[in-house]
Amino acid sequence: MVRARLTPPARASRDRSQPPPRRRSGRLASAGVIMEAATPLFLRKGYAGTSMDEIAALAGVSKQTIYTHFADKERLFSDLILRNAERVDEFVEQVGAIFEERDDLEQALLELARRYIALVIRPEVLQLRRLVIGEAGRFPELAETYYKRVPERVLETLRSNLDRLAERGLLRIDDPMLAANHFVALILWLPLDRAMFHPGQESSAAGRLDQLADAGVRVFLAAYGIG
């Protein structure tokens, strides 16, 4: 093929001989501190299984302090999910930069695929994905918002970049959005499908993930490459 060129664990019972845990001061009892405490509880126990008492205890604040930042548990849960959705911002910014900085199309796609697979197959990202899917019946609007802000945003970013490459004659694409979906499927389907159904076994050898990313790019270029 001719290469196209580019320009916390559960709480143990407290020893009563020890002093009680110190409450955080008002200055330290920020929304971020509360979300930091709530995140592992929601990830491990789900929405229904997590209580505001547990969150307050782990954060070292009173329940009243939590309610000064969040109207209720539902609002805390929603804000936590959407704040974590912002993790995709950096990757979206990287996509265009990769194509601008690499002279070789295949190498650019390989780097993009490796970064993408490494981002998605992180244990904390997989845990959040399971949580959103598991609570989609209870919070359908939140699940839809998360999808739009993460998977759909990545797809749109890929679509626009692939479209520009096609306009420059570097790829043969009739439907850029379909091509973007094909790229994601070729890169992620095998490791993501397995990881989602094997909690606790999320980590894969970096070398194996790179192999899957490289194989996906080869198939993508066989379908959409020029020459």
Describe this structure in words.
By secondary structure, this protein is mainly alpha-helical. The protein folds into 2 domains: 31-77, Homeodomain-like (Arc Repressor Mutant, subunit A, Orthogonal Bundle), CATH 1.10.10; 86-224, Tetracycline Repressor, domain 2. 67% of the residues lie in helices and 0% in strands. It has helices at residues 31-45, 52-59, 63-69, 73-85, 88-101, 105-120, 123-134, 140-149, 151-167, 176-196, 206-224. The protein is elongated and about 65 Å long.
Percent strand equals under 5%
**CATH third-level topology of the largest domain:** Tetracycline Repressor, domain 2
Head-to-tail CA distance between termini = 6 Å
Anisotropy-based shape:
elongated
Mean pLDDT: 86
Rg computed from alpha carbons, rounded to a whole number of angstroms: 22 Å
What CATH architecture of the largest domain would you give? Orthogonal Bundle
The CATH class designation of the largest domain is Mainly Alpha
H/E order of the elements? HHHHHHHHHHH
- Biggest sheet details: none
In short:
With 227 residues, the protein is mainly alpha-helical.
Considering the chains and any ligands shown, give keywords for the structure.
227 residues, 2 domains, Tetracycline Repressor, domain 2, Arc Repressor Mutant, subunit A, mainly alpha
Question: Could you outline the blueprint of secondary structure elements for this entry?
Answer:
Elements: H1 31-45, H2 52-59, H3 63-69, H4 73-85, H5 88-101, H6 105-120, H7 123-134, H8 140-149, H9 151-167, H10 176-196, H11 206-224
Helix pairs in contact: 1-2, 1-4, 4-8, 5-6, 5-9, 6-10, 6-11, 8-9, 9-10, 10-11
